[in-house]
Amino acid sequence: MIRQHVEALATPIEWHEASVEALARWSETEVLEPFGLNLGSYGSARMFWRDRHLQRNWAWRSPLVPGLFFGLEKLPTALAHLATKNGVSLKKICDLNEEHVQSILLASCNLIRELSPELFSSVRMFLRSLHVLESPGRGYDVSFSLPCLPNSVFLSIPQPSEHDTTSRLTEAIVHEVLHLQLSLVERICPLVRNDAEQEFAYSPWRDERRPLGGLIHGLFVFRGLELLWKRVARNHLVSIFNFAKNRVEEIRRQCALVEPLEYRSLTSFGQKIFLRLVEA
Q1: If we measure between CA atoms, which residue out of 193, 207, 204 comes closest to residue 263?
Q2: 3-class SS at 213?
Q3: Which residues of the chain register pLDDT less than 70?
Q4: Is 174 strand, coil or helix?
Q5: What angle do CA 197, 222, 165 make, to 5 degrees?
Q6: Which backbone phi and psi does 238 adopt, to 5 degrees?
Q7: C-alpha–C-alpha distance, residues 225 and 190, integer Å
Q8: Distance (Å, whole) CA 109 – CA 100
Q9: What are the φ and ψ backbone dihedral angles of 184, each rounded to 5 degrees?
Q10: Whether the Cβ atoms of residue 260 and residue 185 lie closer than 8 Å to each other
Q11: If you write DSSP's letter for every residue of 74-141 in order, what string do you get?
């Protein structure tokens, strides 16, 4: 049944809640259950070490928004390398302003729900563990996710005195959840052939040539964000209109730099999705 949904799930904001739920059920059965886990018992440390008996160490885990079930999970020191190998570091829980963190997460999740029920359903189904990163500096956001942790997101939290805090965190959450979603889709319908020689193409987000799989992920994520921010004008959200308008224009300029070419290393599914994303 899930194969009926994968094409929509790889096309920005064309999916329905039923498609997201089908992918989540598939991931529980095929990805989590072999290690004794499910979405309710998921934790990053448990998943990384494949040990369902590990105690989860939550900084807090209370529903911020009805229907969302993620929490702020404290990782053991032995897993700090997950951040450092990506060029960032985990923020100490004791250094967090808990009131600010919960407030901005609430505002961001409510903004996602208001702008896009489709994306809100993806956040609801796929996000379970959140980890906070140190920002490299004022006004800079960092985030990442890992295919081996299918329900975990790592991101920095803008400080209260910074500009566009809610919009920036909203973008970070959507960005990483979309990576998680496409990574799960790839487990069912690969984008790149395993037996093919790796091909590279110019990535406007890295300003360098990148492997095609990463480029498609970038296109998928930023096309999703483009459609999210386009809805701000429709919803008359004056306070974030300029941020949204600038992001839509920037994303369109970046996507226009990707050439719609045929690549031998892509599967037929990957080629179809690639061209669809480039020409969106």
Answers
A1: 193
A2: helix
A3: 1
A4: helix
A5: 135
A6: -60, -35
A7: 23
A8: 14
A9: -70, -40
A10: no
A11: PPPGGGTHHHHTTT--BPPGGGS-HHHHHHHHHHHHHHHHHH-HHHHHHHHHH--EEEEE--SSTT--
Q: Nearest CA to 277 among 22, 4, 7, 19?
A: 7
> Phi/psi at 36 (nearest 5 deg)?
75, 20
Tokens representing residue 272 in the block:
């179809």
Q: Considering the entire predicted model, what is its pTM?
A: 0.97
Q: Which amino acid is at 278?
A: V
Name the CA dihedral angle for 232, 237, 242, 244, rounded to a multiple of 10 degrees. Answer: -30
For residue 161, give the 3-state DSSP assignment: coil
Give the span between the Cα atoms of 271 and 51, in whole angstroms: 37
Q: Which two tokens stand for residue 150?
A: 């299918």
Q: What is the pLDDT of residues 150-175, one digit of tens each?
A: 999 999 999 999 999 999 999 999 99
What are the tokens at 193? 């052939």
- State residue 1's pLDDT score: 65
Q: How many CB atoms lie within 10 A of CB 129?
A: 23
Spatial neighbors of 262 by CB under 8 A, at least 6 apart, are: 271
